[in-house]
Amino acid sequence: MSDATGKKAVLQLDGKEIELPIYSGTLGPDVIDVKDVLAAGHFTFDPGFMATAACESKITFIDGNKGILLHRGYPIDQLATKADYLETCYLLLNGELPTAEQKVEFDAKVRNHTMVHDQVSRFYNGFRRDAHPMAIMVGVVGALSAFYHNSLDIENVDHREITAVRLIAKVPTLAAWSYKYTVGQPFMYPRNDLSYAENFLYMMFATPADRDYKVNPILAKAMDRIFTLHADHEQNASTSTVRLAGSTGANPYACIAAGISALWGPAHGGANEAVLKMLDEIGTVENVAEFMEKVKTKEVKLMGFGHRVYKNFDPRAKVMKETCDEVLSALGINDPQLALAMELERIALSDEYFIKRNLYPNVDFYSGIILKAIGIPTEMFTVIFALARTVGWISHWLEMHSGPYKIGRPRQLYTGEVQRDIAGR
Ligand code: CMC
What we know:
Layout: E1 4-13, E2 16-23, E3 31-32, H1 36-39, E4 60-63, E5 68-71, E6 74-75, H2 76-82, H3 85-94, H4 100-112, H5 118-123, H6 133-143, H7 157-183, H8 196-205, H9 217-229, H10 237-246, H11 252-263, H12 271-282, H13 288-296, H14 315-331, H15 336-350, H16 352-356, H17 363-374, H18 381-401
Antiparallel strand pairs: 1-2, 2-3, 4-5, 5-6
Helix pairs in contact: 2-14, 3-9, 3-18, 4-7, 6-7, 6-11, 7-8, 7-18, 8-9, 9-14, 9-17, 9-18, 10-11, 10-18, 11-18, 12-17, 14-17
The structure holds carboxymethyl coenzyme *A.
């Protein structure tokens, strides 16, 4: 726990004064330690955790008003432009960017674990071909729990470390297979001569018939950047889910499967898929004005806009927009749906309704557009988010397990029936 500042908050409760210690982090608002409220017979009430810090962490810092996102102190735009995804993974896991030697060693370690146990491939057959790939991911990532009995001691530092590497290495394989299965194509095994992003695109799009399949380097760079920009995001819903599941001592693969489930929802990781569905529904640029009216009367939400934390701009969206422009011009894409997306962006950035509410395009607005341009099917968008976020989840899980922690157990404001007796029996 951070040092108390010496400052105290004083709470008046039932005629008594309770002094609550205040702690300072290195950045961000001070926090009030409310534990003593319990001894005074009260709970605190904060649905949606709007003002509640549930843990102490050194991994990621966000200042939503200023649009700042730092991983281990480094701004996200610098990481996205000056480091690659695996370096960002190393940073999140270890606290520092790797030296050249550490980078080679870490890359090799990840490459060494890209294969999954052959038995895992059989799980896919249990799914319908039209299963949503996120449903498959929840199942197969959770199933990894059953394959590493000898390295699942969560008290053992080496076991925790190898688990982190295994997850970062294997999730792309499982993700690409969740796509291959739904389109009925054979699974492509990982190629360890390729970079992390290239290998993922290879497993997605190559087939055994196309021996000369080459990954487009512009797309690999964009993919790597999408991974980097989604790598971690502090105590969001899915990361908090991983921490909560992990706080029970559950095995890490099960915890990550819980994170994948939480990410799936359209208010979180499902937003990039929802953006494309929304564009489908709008149809053509002529229908935009009518759609925007529905947004203003709150009949529909503008997916890919707004954020719980970023109330001015999403710093990830800034870099993602640059990548989006790069990819679209490099591929010479002239897709009416993309023109539609650009029109939505233009209106939202200039219309008083959106300006007043600070509703800016978020990272998922642009990542959805890039992924579509790359040729990734819409159902895979959230899977790609999950792939990239796996490192964030496991970094938080590791941080929690490297110090003392308590089982997460929120309390409630009960508003149901008071005690009563079953009558007439
Ligand atoms: N479209 C239209 N209006 C919106 C939207 C939106 N996407 N988001 C917020 N608003 C309005 C909302 O109705 C409210 O208006 P009023 O003041 O008139 O009542 C005002 O803006 C403030 O919104 P809020 O509901 O207090 O915002 P929140 O912090 O609770 O919600 C959010 C954040 C991300 C759930 C929401 O903005 C949303 O549903 N956005 C669309 C989904 C999306 O793109 N999510 C991805 C977030 S980025 C990826 C990630 O980090 O997970």
